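Re: the request from the purification team.
They wanted to know what the chain is likely to look like in 3D before they choose a buffer screen. I agreed to run a prediction and write the result into the notebook, where they can find it.
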Amino acid sequence: MSFQKIKITVLSLCKNNNGYFKSEKQADFLISQLEKYDGHIGCNDSGFHKCPLSATWDVDGIIKTSKHTKNGRVTVWERRVDGVLSETGKKLLKKRKRKLNELNKQLVSREACVVKVDYARIESEQKKLDDYNEFINKPNVLSDSFNQTVKDEAESTQRLIECLKNRQVDFDNNTQKLRDRILHLEELIKDIESTEFAMKENK
């Protein structure tokens, strides 16, 4: 088996079999190769810079894989163990909770800001427009220039109302997107906390 195929096999075991060897024959062979190369299985191909990739193992299979960067060793994958949340899982959970807190603060801020003022202003401008239209539709003996001024004001008010409504729609849509992001993040956090291997760690 080539060096590249060893890497592919190790990563496949991590992805599809929680790192466990599928047979004694596979275990004997892979362990001999890992010992031969001191756990080195190639390079991490993702990203601009290629980083050496290594595996840690026991008699049952791969325990974890790590990439070696200029900042030190970084865990790429860890075997899931019942009742234990991996270091990667802990970091991910902490990161998602921190992001959730930020998004909730953004939502509170959005719901408390200009949206309420806009509703009030739309109502106020609509009342002005109704008054203009009522004046325009009534017979009057005022000058044409004055009547035209009222019509211009009515058109200007109508445009302003449409602008405010569009802004309100955009605001509501963006707020809903924020709520959806929060809901999605809550589900991701729930998935981590509710998995079998995370239960004891979070008690």
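For the purification team: Strands lie at 40-44, 51-57, 62-69, 72-78.
Please add any questions underneath this entry.
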